Amino acid sequence: MRHRLAGRTLRRRIAHRLSVVHNLATELLKHERMTTTAAKAREAQGVVEKIITKGKRGTVHDRRQVLRVVTDERVVRKLFDELGPRYADRPGGYTRLVRLMPRISDSAPMAMLELV
């Protein structure tokens, strides 16, 4: 039974699913915009929102927690040096999810996830 289980499985085991979501979050913070399937975008959106909130606070503990998710040290520096101060006065809602046309090959619903 699925009682009270949150999140999407994305048809992957837990280790692969976490790897996919962490890589999506890293790439979004790196390029500030990405196109992926709608389910992956919705799953990565929550992770990125929490990471940017940690980037706004900027403590050593927050930096270490972000390093558990973000796989690139340069992206972590960008988060704490550029993105954190950029969103300092914003109380949340750092990302925008825009639905796109379905993918041609398999008609998967696509979405563009970008930083506001």
3D architecture notes:
The chain has helices at residues 14-31, 38-57, 60-69, 73-86; strands at 33-37, 95-99, 110-115. It has 116 residues and is an alpha+beta fold. The chain has one domain: Ribosomal protein L17 (50s Ribosomal Protein L17, Chain: A). The protein has a three-stranded antiparallel beta sheet with strand order 1-3-2, with helices on one face.
The helix content is 40-55%
- Order of strands in the sheet with most strands: 1-3-2
CATH architecture: Alpha-Beta Complex
CATH topology: 50s Ribosomal Protein L17, Chain: A
Helix count from the secondary structure assignment = 4
> Main sheet, how many strands, which sense, barrel?
3 strands, antiparallel
Euclidean distance between termini CA atoms = 38 Å
Compact overview of the structure:
By secondary structure, this protein is α+β, with helices and mostly antiparallel strands. It has helices at residues 14-31, 38-57, 60-69, 73-86, and strands at residues 33-37, 95-99, 110-115.
Topology:
Elements: H1 14-31, E1 33-37, H2 38-57, H3 60-69, H4 73-86, E2 95-99, E3 110-115
Antiparallel strand pairs: 1-3, 2-3
Helix pairs in contact: 1-2, 2-3, 2-4
Give the key terms.
alpha+beta, 50s Ribosomal Protein L17, Chain: A, three-stranded antiparallel β-sheet, 4 helices
